[in-house]
Design brief:
This protein has 162 residues and is α+β, with helices and mostly antiparallel strands. The protein has six helices and three strands; from the N terminus they run E-H-H-E-H-E-H-H-H. The chain has two domains: 93 residues, no CATH class; 66 residues, no CATH class.
């Protein structure tokens, strides 16, 4: 994966908690696979389809814009990148240089293998530690405050010029 963020066949559905919710979720996924619409699935299964079949790749350093109508799933998809919205089906990959070990959401076997690699590979642990330190320094509160102050100053200058 060369992307900074990648969404592969991502579906995000919202159902009730518990056994009834899991059953409704299975029915909703089957209806989605059968071509059902958001409205039909919500009426039939009581499940809200937030995102269906999303594929998106953003390269390191690339600036992208995600556009769509209100309620089309833009925020729902982006919140999956940081784990705020769990992915029902598909994969979200987020890479930050060498500061992370990437495993697919819900793949317990891949997680176990990644943990074993980290536990047994001292070189990997050191790369992760160094990468994590760099990320922490790059995103410190002090640095963020300074960058926001500079951005604000630039915007004020543009307002005066205009």
């Amino acid at each position: 994966m060369n992307s900074a963020v990648e969404f592969n066949d991502v579906d995000i559905l919202f159902a009730q908690e518990g056994r009834d919710g899991r059953k409704s979720l299975r029915e909703a996924l089957a209806a989605l696979d059968g071509g059902g619409t958001r409205t039909d699935i919500q009426k039939k299964c009581g499940v809200i389809v937030g995102v269906a079949g999303a594929n998106l790749s953003v390269a390191q350093g690339e600036i992208s814009v995600l556009m769509g109508l209100s309620g089309s799933g833009k925020s729902t998809l982006l919140r999956a990148a940081n784990g705020l919205n769990p992915v029902t089906r598909g994969h979200v990959w987020v890479r930050d240089g060498d500061s992370a070990v990437i495993v697919p959401v819900g793949d317990v076997e891949a997680l176990a293998e990644a943990l074993e690699r980290v536990a047994t590979d001292s070189g990997l642990r050191e790369r992760l530690r160094r990468g994590g330190d760099l990320v922490a320094r790059a995103h410190s509160w002090d640095r963020s405050a300074i960058e926001h102050e500079h951005a604000y100053a630039r915007s004020r200058q543009r307002e005066r010029v205009a």
